[in-house]
Amino acid sequence: MNIRHIVVFAVGCIALVSCGGSKHETTEKYVLVAANKSVPYWKTATEGLIRSAKDIGVNAEIVGPDNYDPAAQHAAFQKSIGEKVTGILVSVSDAQALQPDIDAAMQAGIPVITVDSDAPASKRLLFIGTNNYQAGLTGGKLAAKLTGGKANVVIYTMPNQLNLEERLHGYKDGFPGMNIVRVVDIKGDPTVAFDTTMDITKQDKSKVDTFICLEALACKEVAGVLTRQNVTGKTVIAMDTDRDVLDFIKKGTIAATIAQKPYTMAYFGVRLLDDLHHDKTFQSGIGTVHATLPAFVDTGSILIDKTNVDDFMKSPEATTTAQ
Questions:
Q1: pLDDT tens digits, residue range 57-77?
Q2: Where are the domains of the chain?
């Protein structure tokens, strides 16, 4: 699906609701099931969720643990099924663990859309989010340019998340001269990134040229350690727009970050779930060439570096994404 088709599809979906094509009941409720809802990224998504619900006159809530916990996300998803919510958005922390939940919700007549991170083998209706391979490719090409095409690299990530795996794939294709010397599973805990980076700077900092963060929590810790230890000359590329990350870009410690659009994911997700709830014809032909829904809606991403970080921080968008 090209950008023009996505825009036409999005406008058409929103128009269906805006034209008063459905009457909402007071019991209608949509939930976004996150795996770590306290981080700024999901606070931004919550703003999009609530704004969308307010615009169309329904109820909406973000649910899930306040710290990274796939098991607790699984429990929150099951609870939402038991409460018979009207529709579910979910960012999949572990596709294998959540696929049965997604399939059970769909079997119960609750439409499910994945956002941010997908479970493509499940019966979910579609995925709304970043083209994560393209985001990684963008970061990889930048890293190759900044390092002269070759570097020893430390990767910060979390396993079992398809979005992070796709970003790494993109980085590898964009930066074929990258030699990955260490892959750090931060387990959703920024202190792991801090402690690991501290160990690297004390033991083998000369062997590492570049630090790449595939998720939002690690790179402000990496930059903080490099600053504390007076380590210079390293390339650091982050993900998302935590305020500290943007500040480190201004200082030059972080070269760039790739900004996603969680507000858009949640906002459009609720609008589409509402359409799906009120018009079942939207769900016809799923998995066939005559499907009425696309498999993927790309919400886009933005590369932020020293050339545009000041403008970004002044923009209305930064008031919701840089927290």
A1: 999 999 999 999 999 999 999
A2: 3-130+261-299, 132-259
